[in-house]
Structures are given as C-alpha cells and as structure tokens.
Specification:
Blueprint: E1 4-11, H1 16-28, E2 33-39, E3 48-56, E4 69-74, H2 77-82, E5 87-96, H3 103-106, H4 116-123, E6 127-130, H5 132-139, H6 145-156, H7 161-171, H8 174-188
Parallel strand pairs: 1-4, 4-5, 5-6
Antiparallel strand pairs: 1-3, 2-3
C-alpha cells in the first residue's frame, strides 16, 4: 500500500477522535506504520476538530499539508468546505450532510453559508455524501454517525472487513456496540 493520508474534520462531540483511533487501529493491525495528529480547538464548545492519519510502510510525520489528503472524512458540511484546500487533486471526500451551527451563527454574527455541497463540487466532484445522522438514528443511536462514515471509508481502503469489525469491537463500549456495528454495515453497503 502506498502512503494514504486521511483527514477527519468535524465538530466537537461528533466522535471524530474515536474515528481516528478506529482507523489507526485497523492500519496498525494490518502491519502499517501509522501517525496520528489531532487539533481539538474549542471542541468542548462545538468548535472545529481535525485529525490527520498517515499510514504507509514507513511514515515520518503526521502532518498533512494542503493538497495532500487522499480522503477527507467530513462529519459536517461546513467543516468539509473549510478543509477543502487539503484535498489532493485526485482525492475523495466523504461528507455527512449534517449542518451544525457554529457559535458565530448562533449569536447572529454570521450566517451559515448556503449551498455548501455545491461550493465543494466546484473544486471536486469526487464526493460521497450521506445523511449519516438519519442513518445512525435508524440504527438505534445518533452517536453512531462516525461508524456510518467509517463504513463508507472502509470500502475505499484495502483492509479486510474483519479488521474493521475487530477494531470496532475493541474500541466501542459494549452497550453501544450493536448499534455501531449496524451503522458500520449500513455505511459499508451504502451506494450513492
């Protein structure tokens, strides 16, 4: 496997950090060198959260520069637009269609941009978009948005499905596991 650079972008509380650990765990258990980097910002107040995952035979730095992300896994539309410059020319975006209003919008200081997906499509049409919140709700918990998106990501990477399932079983608390496994399966089988 060549080096794969994945950025996970979202808002605090969406499970982005757990998602990065799950993905990193799969790569490590597949004998790849993995480097993770996390930027939490004002995560506890709904602020931007970014995780970078680099995996290859040997990785020297966790930092993903602009134009280097092979995949951007966006848990929220505006965060997808905010980090679009980091997508590689042949990169792919997986976007949750959810909109979480930032503090500046909630206080009336700014408006949430309209047509975010259309703005992204100006730069790339290599997008998989899904209402992962609705899918997670159907699976039994709104807290499984991250595993819906991981399921989609799993189809794009060359790791056996069993490795993904083992990582989920290892890292997700047992009381949430059944709903998360269902959410993963739904994402894994998602066809747009």
């Amino acid at each position: 496997m060549n080096e794969v650079n994945i950025m996970i972008v979202g808002v605090g509380g969406q499970g982005t950090l757990l998602a990065s650990r799950i993905i990193g765990n799969v790569a490590i258990n597949s004998s790849y060198d993995v480097k993770l980097s996390e930027i939490h910002g004002m995560a506890q107040r709904g602020g931007s959260v970014v995780s970078s995952i680099k995996m290859a035979e040997k990785v020297y730095s966790p930092i993903i520069e602009k134009g280097e992300a092979d995949i951007i896994l966006a848990f929220e539309e505006l965060e997808a637009l905010r980090w679009l410059d980091y997508l590689a020319p042949a990169g792919r975006m997986i976007i949750n269609k959810q909109q979480i209003l930032p503090a500046s919008v909630l206080t009336g200081q700014a408006d949430y941009p309209e047509g975010v997906l259309e703005k992204i499509r100006v730069s790339t049409d290599n997008i998989i978009s899904i209402d992962a919140l609705s899918v997670a709700r159907e699976c039994g918990t709104t807290r499984a948005v991250n595993t819906v998106l991981i399921g989609i990501l799993a189809r794009l990477l060359d790791f056996p499905k069993e490795k993904w399932l083992a990582s989920l079983e290892n890292l997700i608390p047992e009381r949430y596991l059944e709903a998360n496994l269902k959410a993963f399966e739904t994402g894994y089988n998602y066809i747009q």
